[in-house]
Amino acid sequence: MDAPVFLITGASTGIGAATARAAAAAGHRVVLAARSADRIDALAQEVGGAEVALAVPTDVTDFAAQERLVATTLERFGRLDVVFANAGFGAKRGFLAESPEHWRDMVLTNVLGAAYTIRATIPALRESHGHLILTSSVAGRRALPGSLYSATKHAVTAMGEGLRQEADGAFRVTTIEPGMVDTPFFDNPPKIEALRPEDIARTVLWVIDQPPHVDVNEILIRPTAQSG
Questions:
Q1: Which helix H or strand E contains 173, and what residues bound it?
Q2: Mean pLDDT computed over 179-203
Q3: What is the CA angle 53-198-165, rounded to 5?
Q4: Strands (E), 105-168
Q5: Which of 84, 116, 149, 171 is catalytic?
Q6: Rounded mean pLDDT of 64-84?
Q7: For the chain, how are helix, strand and coil distributed in percent, rounded to 5?
């Protein structure tokens, strides 16, 4: 097979899992990375099994693990065309609301984890003239009251623009900034009709389907009912 290869971190649930399903349905081979081996193994079987999917348990805060992820991908499929740096999680608002340990894990995952994914995949993306996509947030466009999570997503948005300038056309870079999405990210269901993970997946597939000379740099996507 010479189908393009699409690597997704944070692939076990929500946006990552929905994007894996959409990418496989569109003809991509998919590499699924997350801490939960059981979930990504099940998803790999769901989207087509060993011929089209590879599940690699990965802690994105461990750079050696990310290097192994890329090496395993290249050994198995021989190429890497699209990378979706999607791993991340949130925290309650309020600078007294979460434990320092929770903050540390969130910052390491959302910021350093994304940076590690960039660093580990750049050589393969240069080779394939590929596409790197990062999950930021509407919270990465405007500060939210008492939100350290918002600060991490501002960092991701800045990281995406910095990478785009460094890439200088060698590969494409896109930052996706969703508003409220109905995923396990939230402890309680949204009070409005939120976006669905499949809405973001469809957006990601649209972005990578643009002609090679078109680089969609940022997409801010909110539910119609979300005012802020």
A1: strand 172-178
A2: 80
A3: 80
A4: 131-135
A5: 149
A6: 98
A7: 45, 15, 40
Active site residue 116: no
**Residue (of 83, 198, 88, 61) closest to 153 by Cα position:** 88
Q: Are 181 and 200 in contact (CB under 8 A)?
A: yes
Amino acid 87 reads A
Provide the pLDDT for residue 104. Answer: 97
Pick the closest to residue 82 from 204, 225, 226 (CA basis). 204
Mean confidence (pLDDT) of the chain: 94
Q: What is the mean predicted confidence (pLDDT) over 15-39? A: 97
Tokens of 105: 């894990």
Confidence bin at 190 (pLDDT 50/70/90): low
Q: How far apart are CA 144 and CA 151, in angstroms?
A: 9
Decide if 8 contacts 32 (C-beta within 8 A).
Answer: yes
Percent of the chain with pLDDT over 90: 88
Q: Are strands 53-57 and 29-34 parallel, antiparallel or unpaired?
A: parallel
Domains of the chain: 5-221 (3.40.50.720)
Output the CA–CA distances (angstroms, integers) from residue 37 to 9, 34, 54, 59, 183, in the order listed.
12, 7, 11, 11, 19
The label of the residue with tokens 């389907």 reads 209
Q: Where are the beta strands (DSSP E) in 26-107?
A: 29-34, 53-57, 82-85
